[in-house]
């Protein structure tokens, strides 16, 4: 029964990832905790496996198309990898209720980002059409990369809802390249986060495998079909779903448990 639920949940999250190009993975931890009944200390590393694997699958076509800014990805990863270990260490000192309340806050921020128009590209770090002014913009990337890594270690989220705006609005990266670069950063951070969490053990590999398998399949099918749908409207509806789940997490954590 539990594996069957994992298959269904993975398919739903995969479809959301495929339709929206990201964001669906933020539901992985709530699904593992509230639907499958796992503790958050189990849910976070399992979520990182789902997030990292799904992002790797999504990154491959972007890499082949040349839509990755490798130097920016390296800067974000260099700042993010140690931050995932810091986030994990902080998380181990906090009770589950505090982590769940913090996670709900992250979900609210992600929902707000989903409702905002992502059509504009910043120019603060661009030098005409020739590229990025690295001397000016590398220092901007380091704190952003650290924050994303911290969230990955603490909550098991990929952080694409923060990475993409940082790349687009702060650094002037075109949106297709920002998405590809973000996916690569998420893969690296998720791997680091998993290493930092794996010593705690408790990963249910049957549930994780079922979750990952259907998430990948769902994302591939949905990505193929998504060109026929109004993804902007879907993104708004998904934001409202994220707000609803965040509200449930807060009510359950504060008033019920």
Automatic annotation (TrEMBL):
<keyword id="KW-0472">Membrane</keyword>
<keyword id="KW-1003">Cell membrane</keyword>
<keyword id="KW-1133">Transmembrane helix</keyword>
<feature type="transmembrane region" description="Helical">
    <location>
        <begin position="177"/>
        <end position="198"/>
    </location>
</feature>
<feature type="transmembrane region" description="Helical">
    <location>
        <begin position="144"/>
        <end position="171"/>
    </location>
</feature>
<dbReference type="InterPro" id="IPR051598">
    <property type="entry name" value="TSUP/Inactive_protease-like"/>
</dbReference>
<keyword id="KW-0812">Transmembrane</keyword>
<feature type="transmembrane region" description="Helical">
    <location>
        <begin position="237"/>
        <end position="256"/>
    </location>
</feature>
<feature type="transmembrane region" description="Helical">
    <location>
        <begin position="97"/>
        <end position="115"/>
    </location>
</feature>
<protein>
    <recommendedName>
        <fullName>Probable membrane transporter protein</fullName>
    </recommendedName>
</protein>
<comment type="similarity">
    <text>Belongs to the 4-toluene sulfonate uptake permease (TSUP) (TC 2.A.102) family.</text>
</comment>
<dbReference type="Pfam" id="PF01925">
    <property type="entry name" value="TauE"/>
</dbReference>
<feature type="transmembrane region" description="Helical">
    <location>
        <begin position="205"/>
        <end position="225"/>
    </location>
</feature>
<dbReference type="GO" id="GO:0005886">
    <property type="term" value="C:plasma membrane"/>
</dbReference>
<dbReference type="InterPro" id="IPR002781">
    <property type="entry name" value="TM_pro_TauE-like"/>
</dbReference>
<feature type="transmembrane region" description="Helical">
    <location>
        <begin position="72"/>
        <end position="91"/>
    </location>
</feature>
